[in-house]
Automatic annotation (TrEMBL):
Entry keywords, A to Z: Acyltransferase, Endoplasmic reticulum, Transferase
Cellular compartment(s): Cell membrane; Endoplasmic reticulum membrane
Broad class of where this protein is predominantly found: membrane
Catalyzed reactions per annotation: a long chain fatty alcohol + a fatty acyl-CoA = a long-chain alcohol wax ester + CoA; an acyl-CoA + a 1,2-diacyl-sn-glycerol = a triacyl-sn-glycerol + CoA
Family (UniProt): In the N-terminal section; belongs to the long-chain O-acyltransferase family.
Membrane topology classification: Single-pass membrane protein
GO molecular function, one term: diacylglycerol O-acyltransferase activity
Pfam families documented for this protein: WS_DGAT_C (PF06974), WS_DGAT_cat (PF03007)
Pathway: Glycerolipid metabolism; triacylglycerol biosynthesis; Lipid metabolism
Residue ranges of every copy of the O-acyltransferase WSD1-like N-terminal domain listed in the record: 107-183
Source species: Senna tora
Protein name as annotated: O-acyltransferase WSD1-like
């Protein structure tokens, strides 16, 4: 393959773009998923093109396709020739003055800059950045920037994991923590089932109505985490994040402790508990098919008033109860149905504009993914750390969570010059230790 060839379009390779893919790549929305692999050793840049050619491009035709519009205005994926050199960026950083320093600040500035840049529509919508400078987290890093139109986090992370191996034994598959449902019961009484159906119907109407209002009319108050300028989640962790966020808001503005603030929680709507193989994902009948199978849930951030001021565990319980109640609602699938209906009546740009407004009217976006339990490696380069975030939306704050080797990493992507990320990080750490201490002082309880 010649890596200096010009991009060529092959008309026979045409695939319709999914509705969600059109929403995420429109005139008002252009959303990206940014993943970072941190390595224990410097990365051999000579391996980049062979690895992409042999491992990455064959995963899915979308990695070798561009999005075009036909005569009727419908968007299609068209297969093209790929000049891999156009997709590989290897930046040069200034030399540091002392070996005691790290390149953390240069790395942070670099990832902030590329998060704001738009990928050209004339070539496949992805690129990688090889950072061969040591930071406090690793000796080198690779940043994957992939357009959300290519697929959601489940799809893209599943694709990435297919390129990686277990560091301890490459012949063994990566394993992932299982999601256990503790609420399953087949011996429920008729009264209990009737009560559940009635409760589900009620909460569905309430949540669907509120979601529609939040997406169209009602917006959160302007607070220290929402500037108002364009520009299955673990209940305990979410409660900690909510509590830390309120501590930050209160520190910046005392009145913010009672302000209306909402988290837009992104959900994977697939009926699967773990990642499937790439071959399975490409099967449309699979439980975890490729694509953008996501929805969202509006979760109010509890206010720092009343009993919650003295007892931080109230934040955890309040968060747990809200999410548990909303799981009883059918608002999530019905919201998807309403979006489909609106796209047929008003077009994809109208839906994209509404989704833009939904995000902008909320205070923060929360998303999470699970990672492998074992250490990964890429071409014998051990992966020390791994995290991801979202870019391109109008929100002031994105909170993403990723598990890897038994540890959970929380990443904050914040609006520059508006949110003090160091202070917010400190507040979330304080929330964790405060809630941990409070939990250790009460008898152990099981959340049901």
């Amino acid at each position: 393959m010649s890596f200096n060839q010009r991009t060529m379009i092959f008309p026979e390779e045409v695939v319709p773009v999914s509705p969600m893919g059109r929403y995420f790549n429109s005139s008002v929305l252009s959303i990206y998923i940014i993943g970072v692999l941190e390595f224990e050793v410097p990365f051999d840049t000579c391996l980049a093109i062979p690895l992409l050619n042999q491992l990455f491009l064959p995963i899915n035709p979308r990695f070798s396709s561009i999005m075009v519009e036909d005569k009727s205005g419908e968007k299609q994926w068209k297969k093209v020739g790929v000049n891999l050199k156009d997709h590989i960026k290897i930046p040069l950083f200034p030399k540091i003055k002392s070996q005691l320093e790290s390149y953390d600040n240069y790395f942070a500035d670099y990832i902030s800059r590329i998060a704001l840049e738009q990928l050209p529509q004339s070539r496949p919508l992805w690129e990688i950045h090889i950072i061969n400078y040591p930071t406090s987290k690793g000796e080198s890093s690779i940043i994957f920037k992939l357009h959300h139109a290519l697929g959601d986090g489940y799809s893209l992370m599943g694709a990435l994991f297919s390129c990686l191996q277990r560091a301890d034994d490459p012949s063994l598959p990566l394993t992932f923590p299982s999601l256990k449902n503790s609420s399953k019961s087949s011996n429920k009484s008729l009264f209990h089932r009737f009560s559940w159906i009635t409760s589900t119907a009620y909460h569905t109407l309430v949540d669907l109505g509120w979601s529609i209002l939040k997406s169209s009319v009602i917006q959160d108050d302007e607070t220290p985490i929402r500037s108002g300028v364009e520009g299955t989640i673990n209940d305990v962790i979410t409660g900690i994040i909510f509590y830390g966020t309120r501590l930050y808001m209160q520190g910046a503005n005392y009145e913010s402790r009672a302000a209306t603030s909402t988290a837009l929680v992104l959900l994977n709507t697939r009926n699967t508990e773990s990642y499937q193989s790439v071959d399975d994902m490409l099967n449309a009948k699979a439980k975890g098919p490729w694509g953008n199978r996501i929805s969202f849930l509006h979760v109010p951030i509890p206010k720092l008033i009343g009993a919650r001021v003295l007892d931080p565990l109230e934040f955890v319980w309040e968060t747990h109860n809200m999410i548990k109640r909303k799981k009883q609602s059918l608002a999530v699938p019905l919201t998807g149905m309403l979006l489909d209906m609106e796209s047929r009546l008003k077009g994809y740009e109208a839906v994209a504009k509404q989704l833009h407004g939904t995000v902008w009217k909320s205070s923060t976006v929360i998303t999470n993914l699970i990672g492998p339990s074992e250490q990964m490696s890429l071409a014998n380069h051990p992966v020390k750390g791994f995290y991801f975030t979202l870019a391109g939306g109008p929100e002031s704050l994105v909170i993403s969570m990723m598990s890897y080797m038994g540890e959970l990493r929380i990443t904050l992507k914040s609006e520059k010059y508006f949110i003090d990320e160091d202070k917010l990080n400190c507040c979330i750490n304080t929330a964790f230790h405060t809630i941990l201490k409070a939990a250790m002082e009460v008898p152990q309880q099981t959340i049901t």
